[in-house]
Amino acid sequence: MINTKILIIGAGPAGAACAGHLQQQGVDCLVLDKHTFPRPKPCAGWTTPEVWQLLQTSPQEYPYGLTHFSSFQVSVKGIRFRLKTNQYAIRRYEFDAWLLEKYQIQPVTHTVRRIERCKDGFIVDDTYSCQYLIGAGGTNCPVRRFIDAEREQLGHKKQILAMEDEFEYPVVDHHCHLWFFENRLPGYSWYVPKANGYVNVGVGGSAARMSDRGDSIKRQWRHLIDSLAASGLVIGHDYQPRGYAYYLREKSPAIRQGNAFLLGDSAGLATNDMGEGIGPAIQSGILAASAIVENKPYTIRSIPRFSLPSLLGLRK
Fold this sequence. Notes:
With 316 residues, this protein is of the alpha/beta class.
């Protein structure tokens, strides 16, 4: 049996930030992830200046490619306008691996299948034991499934279905485009050009509202790629989209059950307006680490529920 005081399941931004903050405080932990890094991770990759402040670094120090946007090209039900912003786009393939390098974290490749409570904490797959268990494995995190078995699950009304693809492409438009509520989509779609010749395109919307009207995320995806071709943004690409689900922030999300903690998408902390998850993931990781080290309550009140104030430079 491998014993550790703190076991973190998931080595993405939430798990890496948590482990990094623990190590900065002189507390050892063990991180598990079913993937080896770097690993493919389709994501719009939006990061605000606050994210870089949380990581105690600056975009200029980031060793991989990133794109800075001073404005978005926005369409709301066909009404188009330019929206000033201060935003950076990264590739998760690079960013997540960089976070692990930054904090000198070496995750153990392991797929978690069973979690049990024991007298002193938790046992994972009869292999790992810990006093504190941290769930940072995204929407389908095994720690979340373990806690869900003991509490009411997240509401379906907050579930978002999404499809996206990230690929190399000769970029013809270096603006970020966002389309809200088009084609009766209860959400928005996007075109995000990234550094070094990559593009991320995707669509996301409320699962409940699409289901109620007999719509589907696949139909909305087809509308998006047809629109991209018609506008000349992406033509003739052989898409290989990935579909997934996540949850928007509830008023009082369940983030802890005893010594089991949930971070980021595992707790459903994506912002209610843009579905942005990188910032909440990193901040929740730091807050959970502080709660353990300082023996204080784990609270996420300081994590914003909306992205737009930060994107527009309104949040100091």
